[in-house]
Amino acid sequence: MNTRPMPVEAIDSDSYQVSRFNAVRHGVLSRHTVLPWEDEIEYRALLEALMTEHAPNGPTGEHLVEEVAGIIWRKRRLRMAEAAVYRNKLRDSTASPFQPDVIAGAALLPITGRTEARANTARAIAATSAETARDLRDLKRDQGMSQRALNILLTGGSNAYGRALAALRTDTRACWQESLAEEPEDGLTHAPTAEALQAWIEHHWAEWYEKPIAELQHRDAIRDQALGIAYAANELDAPARYEVHLDRKLERTLAMLVRLQELRRAASG
């Protein structure tokens, strides 16, 4: 049986209008563009929106629109991959102890012995300069009140315990009073005495003041380190080159699509 292809001019325009979104309905390219864990319905919505926007008139134009959809979809995937790298690096840097040799020229914290400094990286990145200044001012005020209490306890004298207790900041005093009802830790004695209160303040001094103040004073360095790790230039170099390739391909494809439409309009005119 001898069959010949139907001439292009013989194709019924109404039947073409009915079938023009076949690629959208059947997902011809989505089988290659959309990864198994991605949302094919979302891709098809993008493709259909582009079909509506560019209104291709013929299989060549439809193919170019599908190419545009694939490029946009891959560019979106690159953005998500980039964000994932940032999140993973920031999470790793937040979860891991900061070592003093990581930041050149800046001692994050006064580390002695086997003490490890954990910086609040997320807070350091998010905080503004005004917030950092406020936090540092508040912390140093609290430290000054605790220092006055320690001075009273070290000097001793009449009712040193009561006077020292009154010198503490309200929340610090409340924390001590709650501790009196709890089991002591690390060999401390929880008792309403000058000796016990002094030991308790000295035990928490580095935790409450020295480390947090050092962190606040070096927030810029912490932020630079965290973001430097997060940017992971070596890991994002290849995706960046691929994105440039996609941008160029998108530009060429759109130019071809526009040119095709111009030629069709000129031919029909």
How would you concisely characterize the structure shown here?
The chain has 269 residues and is an all-alpha fold. The protein contains 12 helices and no strands. It has 2 domains: 120 residues, no CATH class; 106 residues, no CATH class.
Helix/strand layout:
Blueprint: H1 13-19, H2 22-26, H3 30-33, H4 40-54, H5 59-95, H6 121-126, H7 129-155, H8 160-167, H9 170-179, H10 194-217, H11 219-231, H12 233-268
Helix pairs in contact: 4-5, 5-11, 5-12, 7-8, 7-10
What does this structure look like?
- This protein is an all-alpha fold and about 270 residues long.
- The chain folds into two domains: about 10-95 and about 235-269, no CATH class; about 110-215, no CATH class.
- It is about 70% helix and about 0% strand.
- The protein has twelve helices and no strands.
- The chain has helices spanning about 15-20, 20-25, 30-35, 40-55, 60-95, 120-125, 130-155, 160-165, 170-180, 195-215, 220-230, 235-269.
- The two termini are about 40 Å apart.
What would the keywords be for this entry?
disordered N terminus; 71% helix; mainly alpha; rod-shaped; single chain; 269 residues
Distance between the termini: 40 Å
Total DSSP E strands: 0
Q: State which percent range the strand residues make up.
A: under 5%
Sheet of most strands: none
Helix % is over 70%
Number of separate structural domains: 2
Shape: rod-shaped
